[in-house]
Specification:
heterodimer, A: about 210 residues, 7 helices, about 80% helix, elongated, B: about 100 residues, three-stranded antiparallel sheet, 3 strands
Chain lengths: ~210, ~100
């Protein structure tokens, strides 16, 4: 068989396979999402933010730690802004040099998050004022967490990821349980189960990816 | 290793095929990014991409992003099959089926 040109073939079958694996891993590394940069900042934001809300606004109006009234929400929003920045950076790096179907999937999904929360903000903002103060906080929290859960399950359909569905379903269960238990308890569940769950989820994905790459 | 696909069985083209095979269906990789990942000169990459394109294994698309022309490449359906066949053939060489 005549060679197509003078570029040397790999020395052995073993070396051939090693080359294939090396280049596939190099590309996979650039197109896959860094799970630590994506999930950990959100997990930390929820764990700390909702944790402080629980300590300051506990069940039945109890105050476990007498923090300034404004502190928990300010910390929660500041941490969420940091998480948003991290998400934007991680998502932008993921798509470098890749065009086509996945670009549209990522862009549409990103905009869907923003539009979903625009809807959450306008609807909840309109009606929350008719509720007692503690219930107002619960309404904001449960609609937001429920929307996040739905977005993860939608993500599971886009990227065919069973893990994302499990995460979304878990957040939904926590959210429903928290609403049933009432203000205070909802914050605790979202902090520990939601924030802790997101952190655990990111770590599991990260460990699995490391093992797969050897 | 005489009966391996000669179009793929050369280091540079094998590496290009392997890299593109890791992309999701419907995705293309831009020329500069491919060059960076494979650490090849633009001329070398261009020569081998053209050969793969002529063999019908790779589809090269040229488009404009604003005023900047961008070139991107992806495996064709035929290229995917050829690469899978090639990989299977190499595996079979490493672990030959036992004869009874």
């Amino acid at each position: 068989m005549t060679p197509v040109d003078d570029d040397a073939p790999p020395a052995s079958p073993a070396e051939t396979l090693a080359l294939i694996q090396q280049e596939r891993a190099a590309v996979a590394g650039t197109v896959s999402l860094n799970p630590l940069g994506y999930y950990l900042p959100w997990g930390a934001a929820w764990l700390i933010g909702y944790g402080l809300l629980f300590l300051r606004y506990g069940p039945d109006g109890r105050i476990f730690v007498d923090l300034p009234a404004w502190l928990p929400l300010v910390v929660l929003f500041a941490a969420m802004v940091l998480a948003m920045i991290s998400t934007a950076v991680v998502s932008a790096r993921r798509g470098r040099g890749v065009e086509g179907r996945s670009t549209w999937q990522g862009t549409a999904y990103g905009f869907a998050w923003f539009l979903a929360f625009a809807g959450v903000g306008s609807t909840t903002g309109r009606f929350a004022k008719y509720l007692p103060e503690q219930e107002q906080g619960l309404l904001w929290a449960c609609v937001s967490v429920g929307t996040v859960a739905v977005m993860y399950m939608v993500g599971s359909a886009i990227w065919l990821s069973r893990d994302m569905f499990v995460l979304g379903a878990w957040l939904t269960v926590i959210n429903i349980a928290g609403v049933a238990l009432g203000p205070g308890w909802h914050s605790l569940l979202v902090a520990v189960g939601g924030g802790g769950g997101l952190i655990l989820f990111g770590l599991i994905l990260w460990a699995r990816e490391r093992r797969r790459r050897g | 290793m005489a009966d391996l696909d000669p179009v793929i069985h050369a280091q540079a083209r094998l590496r290009i095929m392997a890299a593109l095979s890791a992309l999701a269906d419907g995705d293309r990789m831009t020329f500069p990014r491919l060059q960076q990942i494979l650490d090849m000169t633009a001329g070398n990459l261009s020569v081998h991409l053209t050969k793969l394109e002529q063999a019908g294994y790779v589809e090269v698309a040229k488009s404009f992003r604003g005023r900047t022309p961008t070139t991107s490449a992806a495996l064709s359906a035929r290229g995917r099959v050829a690469f899978d066949d090639y990989t299977a053939a190499v595996r079979a060489l490493l672990d030959p089926p036992k004869e009874s």
